[in-house]
Each structure stands twice: as structure tokens, then as C-alpha cells.
Please model this.
Amino acid sequence: MTVVAAHRSMITFSVNGRDVEVSADGARRLSRVLREDLGLTGTKVGCDAGDCGACTVLLNGEPVCACLVAAAQAAGCEVVTVEGLAKRSPMLGRLQQSFLAHGAAQCGACTPGMLVSATALLEKNSSPNKNEVMDAIGGVLCRCTGYRKIISAILEAGTGGGSRVVKTAEAGAAVGTRLVRLDGQRKVEGSEVFGADEIPKDALGVRVVRSPHHRTRFHFGDLDAFAAKHPGVVVVLTAKDVPGADCYGVIPRCADQSVFAHHEARHRGEAVAAIVGEPCALEKLDLSEFPVRWEELPPIKTVDEALADGAPRIHGHREENVLVRGRVVRGDVDQALQQADFVVGGEFETGFVEHAYIEPEAGFARRIGDTIEVQACTQSPYMDRHDVAKILGIAPEKVRIIPTAVGGGFGSKLDLSVQPFIALAAWKLDRPVRMVYSRTESIVSTTKRHAARMRLRAGATRDGRLTALDFSADFNTGAYSSWGPTVAGRVPVHASGPYIVPNYRALTRAVHTNIVPAGAFRGFGVPQAAIAQEQIYDELADRVGMDRLEFRILNALSNTTPTVTGQVLGECVGIRACFEALRPRWNSARFAASQFNATIKGPLRRGVGVAGMWYGCGNTSLPNPSTVRIGLTRDGRIALHQGAVDIGQGSNTIVTQICADAVGAPITHFDLVSGDTAISPDCGKTSASRQTFVTGKAAHMAGTKLREAILNLAGACKCGDIQFGEGGIWVHENGKSQALDLNALPLDEHGYVITCQETFDPPVTPLDENGQGNPYAVYGFGAHLAEIEVDIELGTVRVVKVTAAHDVGKAINPTLIEGQIEGGVAQGLGMALMEEFFPGKGENLHDYLIPSAGDVPEVESILIEEPSSIGPFGAKGIGEQAVIPTAPAILNAIYDAVGVRIPKVPATPDRVRAAMLEKARGGTRG
Ligand code: FES
Ligand code: FES
Model:
């Protein structure tokens, strides 16, 4: 074991105009000095390797990655962090306001780095052009926004771009208004508290020992001796230290994970032990000296290997390594395909995709008597509470989950990450324990988008009507269940796309392998299915001889046609409207591309592609409730207790807008109470595009009830008006006004004058053995049109523009919805063209590439409003929907440009070139 003595010295520099002197090892990262020694946690750390740009600060006016600057290098320099921008010059204050006005900060994890990088540009050039802006932020990654609103915000900053900030709306007029997000100010000031931003006094740290192999047995040496030998190490925890039921998982009936592997690790990165100790001692530990002997075993890495005869079972009770099967069958698909005038088929594959949120998992836990508190980034506080209680063997009421701001989640932060380790250590040691995943640890150990292999055949009549689709898919679900059952169950419902398909068979399997678990990632498998189905429909349209967009319009679901589960929605089916909204652009873009291809001499070919989507909001045929509580205080303010975690999508703002209009109060009268399980009821998980719809509906119901209660208090009828003023409430009815004397009223058990609590659970029905029933109460619909250029010599693809039409029911906040769409397009582009996670390789943001500002095209959002009678003010979800059609639209555009299908995404240049060469040789895929 090597413990390197720190060489501390006094280092003096200026930070945000203030001289500071710190005692630090000169080699210590400046980012750590700023965050940990000076408390300037506005500077974020996403990779510690110079790849993400989240830690960007100004060093003598130049943007640098603070994680790559040694503290000694800052000596005598002027450092500026996000906290110092506003007071540096009025223009920089305007920059932050412009970010707010444009909705340029979603989760906010990249925002400090973006603001600082933009500052460096604007200080030299107050009127930059778009390319200059894109260059300036090119080294800062954002996983949420798709960059367009960030670029617009910077372009407008020098010219008063913050002047359009809308922070309030008239009472009753919040819905539909482009209000700035209620948590936006904290994000642009750098004061938002993410998982790693709070360090309790005397907190111990954790280093987890993880399997270096895909499959391995392991044998510990003398762990007590190891701990005793290393000053600062307090304890080593293993499976035998888990006091409760060491079996957890996001879907309780499939729970199969343990805090630490027992004897055999089933995937690379699985935890086998945790070393708990003083943070500075842990940092210096050389884990290669940890007393464990690995006995590597042959792993199962692919679905074919897992399903092969005689393959060892990864979980003994799961036959053939199949975690779960999904099935939706309607009509007679075999006969329909036989009778179809045209039939086309194909096989498509998609790879694993890493979530790559900018904030790695982090948090701390502390024991308070017989209660454990866990403050961490999470998408699902109540699910965390359940599993932490199970692990510790205590009642759920003895676990308090305090969600921090979440720097991006996209599904992966639904699963536990740091929570079991910090909770277990804090519980045992009765000391605060903190843990921050490194980027590599995050990538190695957290869930991925499922890799998929899909086969399908589709049939149509001579006049272009779809008659049948036969779809099957195997999903590589990795070593543990996570959300595999949800993916296998949701995909068969959605694999038809938003079309009338009278004869249908969709069969899926989630198959275990020795790969890190695949879980939830924006769309739960539907983006993969759309890649297959939308390409096959294009081929079918071509065979029929129809325009590809008109083929989709002809077959689009309507209010009166049954879905593949036999559900007739009866209202708000907006898919046809989405396609029709694209028609003008489709026609003009197709014409322009054909002109370009006919006249240009050179390697570029243009193409245009279209794809549709639908997505059921909320859980599939399962209870899915949200409960919202609101309370009226004696000074006439309204406390909104809602547990929906805002992971950047804007639920804090959206839910408040809905509630404000239901009450009829200005949004400025609301105080938001977070998702802390001790003080807010359960609003379920932030996933499946359910928070606007489900929690928003619960907020609408609670708000309506509060309005009625206030009128009732005044003895007024339901038609009375309520006026919320400074320090009081007045009720007007029939020309008379009365002030409510709230101070004279008693407080209830929650400490409010009036408390209203409502629960909403969407009306769904179970699916029968053929998958028939009503799996969702409401669906979102959408269609994307991609315009691209292919370089036929290099195989590179550049996306020029995406036009995205989405039926959102009611646009509660158009700016936030556009942000979801633009971010979804960027993730869809990454999936289509560049992103693939190879287990055991490239476990960092240097090798795993996500789109940067220069990769993302112009996005034109078209919002269609087909209101749902169930959703709050008619609203539906948008989060998952936005990502689904982008990749198939791009892939269809590639075919349009160069006449080749790419059977496995991402369509990297080598794959595009290979497909073109195969076509040139007379291969079949073209
Ligand atoms: S944390 Fe410094 S570049 Fe990522
Ligand atoms: S807002 Fe950019 S990473 Fe979330």
C-alpha cells in the first residue's frame, strides 16, 4: 500500500475579485480547491479529465478546465467562477438573464461551464456570430438542451437578451405562458445544490471495490488486517455486513441485486466491498493492494450466447437466461402477411447507450437516532426509501430521502447507485458518509439503454394500407433485472408505431448476460423499436409506390380506430396532425434535396427522412399514482408539497403553473416544498413522461379543491372570485368583497389554515394473455423530419435540420417543451450516428462521444395541441416522446440520400461506407 505524503504549501490567488490564500498540495486540482476548500461549488465536476467542460473557470481571463489546472498553477492568478460573473459586468448579468429567458438551463449541471465559456467570448467580442458562439462552447458538454437555446441565449446576451424574462403571470394565466423555470435563478448563479455539493462536517468517504471482470468468483484475504494497516481506513464492508434483506430492485417482483456480490460477480463493475474511511486516506489507497483474489470465469456477453443450449444460468431460477417475455397479439398476422399485396422484412440492431448525464452520482447519508437520512441525486425518492429500508432491515418510515438537484438522469437515476453504500456505512458507524462517483465508476456500474436485435415483417395492400406487422425483439438486459421487464413489456405495445395495424404480433425477450444492467433510458425500448418499424414502413411505402409521408398519414391512428392492444382512445389522437404539420417542409425539403443531388458535383448527397412515434404516459397497465398536498398559510401564501423530482425537465415549474391556475392564484404566491420524503407525499418516479400528466393532474385536483375550500370559507358559491394580494385574500361575489381573516383561523395538523391533498392514478386496465386492454390513459404523439448530408467518400453524416411536430395536449410552458424536444433530438442524433457503449472499453467521456454543440442541427419545434380530457388542462407528457423519432428519421434520410440501410446503429462512418460498398458490389441491403 502506497501512501504518498502531501506537499502542502500556501497558495495565494484571487477568486471573483477577492484575494484568497489556501493551504494545499500544489498538485491538487484547482476544481477541488474551489469546491472543497473555498466552498465555490458552482464549479461542477463531470469527469475530472478535461472532457466535459463542466468545471470551466476563467484563469486570467481565459477559459480553462479547472480539473486540469494544478492549484500551484493558479498562484498569483485571477480566477473567476460562475459565482463571480454577475458582479463582473452588467453584460454578464444580462447573459444569465438571457439563459433564463431562453430556457438555456435545464438540469443546470453544464450551466456554469457554459456561462463561463460564454463570458470569455463576450468579453472579447460582445456581438459574436453563431459560429463563434459554437466554437466558444464547443468544449462544454450538455446532455439536456441540445445546445440551441444556449446558443440563442449567448447570441442575445449582448443585446439585452434577458429582457424577455417572464417571472410571473396574471392569476389564472400561468398555463401556456413561457415562465422562466422557478429553479432557474439558482442554476445560473451556481447556487443550485447537486449531489456532490454538500459536504457534512466530519464526513467519511467510501471507495467501492468493483469486479474488474465480466464474470468472476472472488476470495477475500484478511480485511480486518487491511483496515488496521492503513491509517484513516475505518472499516471494510462486504455482503456479510448487510443487516437487512440483501435483495433489492426497482421492480420488487424481480428484485435480484445485492449491495455487494456474494462470492461471484455477474458483471464488470459490480461492487464486492466498500472501504470506508477518512477521505484523504481513501484517495491515496492503491486498490490493487486490496486483499481480494479474482477467479475469472467465462462470461456470457451476447444474447446468442445467453440463449445457447447449455449456457450457464446467470440467475438459477431464470430459465434460458430469459428475465421476462412480452407479448401483444391481435388478428391473424400469418394469414394477413400471406394475403398482403406487398411484404417487406428486415433485421436491425442497436447497441448499448450510456446516459452520460453531466453530474455523476453523489450524495451523503447520516444516522439520526434510529433514522437514516440519505441526501443524494435521484429520480425516485420513495422507491429509494423502500429499498434502503429493505437493505438496512428497518421500516420505510425510518428512512428519509432528501433529493438534491439532479444533473441529468434520463432514467438511470431511477436505480440505486451510491445510496446503499453511504446508508449502510452511516448506519453502522453513526457518522456522516459521503460518496461521489468518478466518471468511470458511473459508466462502469450504472445502467445503459438496452442493446436490441429486432426482426420484423410488414404487409400492405396495393392502395397502401398496412395490414400486418410481425415483430420480435431480444433485448440484452445485462446481469440484473433493473427495468428489463418494463422494456420487454412496453415495446410490444408500441412497436406498431402510431398506425392502424389490424393484424399484429410483437414478441420480446429481456435476456440476461454478464454485462452491466441495462435499465431505463428515455423511452424504455421504444426508441429502439421505432428504428426498426419506421425503416420498414419506409420500405413498404416505396414498394407500394407511395410518398413516404402520405403513407404514414393514410395509416395514422385516429380517435376511432383501435390500437394494437384494442384500445380506442376516443379523443386527442394527434398523430395525423403532426404528420400534416410536416407536409409543407417535407415537400420543400425533398424538392431542395433532389435539386441539390442533381446538380452538385462532389461527395455530398442530401436526403430527407421522416418518422412517427407514440408513447403511453406512465406505467404500463399498472397503478401509477401521484399525491399532491397544498396548504394555505396565515399570510395567504400557498405551500405546494409535491414529490416529483425535477431532473431538468421542468416539473417544478410545470406542476406549479398547473396548480396556480387551478387555484386561481398568481404563481408568485406559491412556495415549492421539495420531494423530501419527510415532508412531501409520494409523486412516484420521474420517468415515463408521467409527471406533467399524473402529478400535474394531482396538483390540478388539489388546487381546485383549495379554491373551493376558500370560497366555502367565505360562504361564497363556486362562481365567486378569489383575489390573492399582499398579506391577504379577498373573495368577491355578486359585487361584494370580503377579506378573509386568516389569522383568526386555527392551524391544522400540517400547520396550515387549509390543507388539501389529492391523488390521481391514471385509469388503465390490465392486459390479457394476448396483450389486449388499455395499458395507458393518455398517449403522446409526434413526428420528426430530418434533413441530412452524407459525404459518400468519408461516410460521414451531417444533420442539417430537424423539424419536430409533437402533440402535447396542452403546452403548459412552451419554452420548457421546446427544450425537451431539442434535447431529445440531440440524444436521438447521438443514438443514430455516434453513440455506442462497448462494455469494458472507453469508460470515460473522451472515448464515449456524445453530441457537442457543433453536432446538433437547427431544430424547429411545432407544438400540436389535441387536449386530453384526463390530463391537467389537457396536457400530456413530452420527455420520452422527443427522443423517439429522431434516429429513424435520420436513418431514413440516409437511405433517401444514398440508397443504403444501416442494419446496426449507430450509423458511424465506417458502417455507412461499408453499406455503400456492399450496395456497389450488388449486396442486398441497399
Ligand atoms: S470536470 Fe473538468 S472537464 Fe470535466
Ligand atoms: S442543462 Fe446542460 S447538462 Fe443538463
